[in-house]
Specification:
363 residues; OB fold (Dihydrolipoamide Acetyltransferase, E2P); binds guanosine-5'-triphosphate; binds zinc ion
Length: 363
């Protein structure tokens, strides 16, 4: 069979100067982006097209934990298979600019990367049944921890008759995050989402089941590529037999990562200081540095709650999430340092980041 060379421009898959420069350090290897993962079998997109791939023995051997394995969205250095036989071999993972982490299945306290190098994360919440500020706080803390930029997407606007009230409620928990409203019932109901997506930007959607993520992605794609709820109900399997792609290119040039792991994203190591900036700020005004905000005199948080400036529910959720994170051991120093190690290129940057974290802990 004649070999067809379809040269793929990796910029379309989100390649930026930063990754290209890092890739140049690995002579003789090829750059590729992970587009699919099924246990230890991967698919990667290289300039030569999509290839099956597996990790090298050395990478697996040196991997201290599952964070050291590639995930969908990762940029990796590969050796290509000889001729048409065999898999490509993934030898290195390039430094991630963002990563979603979760506790691995089972009882062990290990973590795993769900997806990497996402620029914008759309946190989807419906304006009817799914509306829940505490859940939104949870997702925001995960998003801030990942280093991707969160945008709140309120879906099913057509089913809400008190949008203004909802927006006021959202504003109280979404400091520093844009909020957009959409509906699949309107012709241009997703225009607002599109304006956050541009060529080469990698995006993902998280949110509870049924809030309309698939509907949204189908609209952005301009065709029904994902199976939505009512189609599933019909059990019309034949029509949608194609397997679900974990990495999609949108007509406007954006790249969607939609892995099972992202769909199941709940609570991993969240970034509470960022998601609850207002509370952390208040706490600096407590009389005692180690105030537990329970019964101490001069507690600025208690004062704010009494004055109606801070919602008691929000504060309770903050305390609850903090406990969960401590309990799961996910915000342990070990994980934090691992995260820093992966996120920051140079040693100097890493040292500065660790110093900042230390100062914060000693405050
Ligand atoms: N009224 C209304 N219904 C919507 C809207 N968007 C989605 N739906 C409906 O909500 C249901 C669930 O939508 P999906 O897109 O399958 O939800 P999902 O978030 O992808 O769900 P999972 O695949 O389980 O994660 C479907 O019946 C959609 O038709 C909307 O803007 N308005
Ligand atoms: Zn206090």
């Amino acid at each position: 069979m004649e070999e067809k060379m379809n040269y793929i421009n990796l910029r379309r898959y989100g390649l930026s100067d930063r990754f290209e420069q890092e890739a140049a350090c690995y002579e003789g290897m090829f750059l590729a982006r992970v587009s699919e993962q099924n246990h230890c079998l991967y698919k990667v997109i290289s300039e030569q097209g999509e290839l099956q791939a597996s990790v090298s023995g050395k990478l697996a051997y040196n991997a201290g934990d599952s964070m050291s394995f590639p995930a969908v969205g990762d940029w990796v250095m590969i050796d290509r298979p000889d001729g048409n036989a065999g898999n490509a071999i993934i030898r290195h993972i390039l430094k991630r600019k963002s990563a979603f982490v979760r506790k691995a299945a089972g009882t062990s306290n290990t973590t795993q990367i769900v997806a990497a190098n996402i620029d914008v994360i759309f946190i989807c919440m419906s304006l009817n049944a799914d509306f829940n500020l505490r859940r939104l706080e949870r997702y925001l803390s995960i998003a801030w921890d990942s280093m991707a930029t969160p945008v709140i997407v309120l879906t099913k606007a057509d089913l809400c008759d008190d949008l203004q009230q909802r927006l006021i409620e959202i504003a109280s928990v979404s400091i520093g995050t844009d909020v957009i409203v959409c509906s699949c019932m309107e012709e241009n109901g997703y225009q607002s989402v599109n304006s956050y997506i541009s060529e080469g930007k990698t995006i993902a959607f998280v949110g509870s089941s049924g809030v309309g993520k698939s509907t949204l992605i189908n609209r952005l794609m301009g065709r029904d590529i994902l199976v939505t709820k009512e189609i599933r109900k019909d059990d019309d399997r034949g029509r949608h037999a194609t397997t679900h792609r974990q990495l999609l290119i949108l007509p406007n040039g954006g790249i969607v990562i939609d892995t099972p792991g992202m769909r199941e994203l709940h609570l991993y190591a969240g970034n509470l200081p960022k998601a609850f900036e207002d509370i952390e700020e208040l706490a600096t005004h407590c009389k005692y540095k180690d105030c537990s905000h329970v019964a101490e005199p001069g507690c600025a948080i208690k004062r704010a709650i009494e004055a109606g400036e801070l919602s008691e529910k929000r504060f309770e959720n903050y305390m609850k999430l903090q406990k969960e994170i401590e309990y799961e051991g996910l915000s342990s120093r070990q994980l934090e340092q691992e995260r820093i190690r992966r996120m920051f290129g140079s040693k100097g940057e890493m040292k500065r980041a660790i110093r900042r974290a230390k100062n914060k802990n000693n405050r």
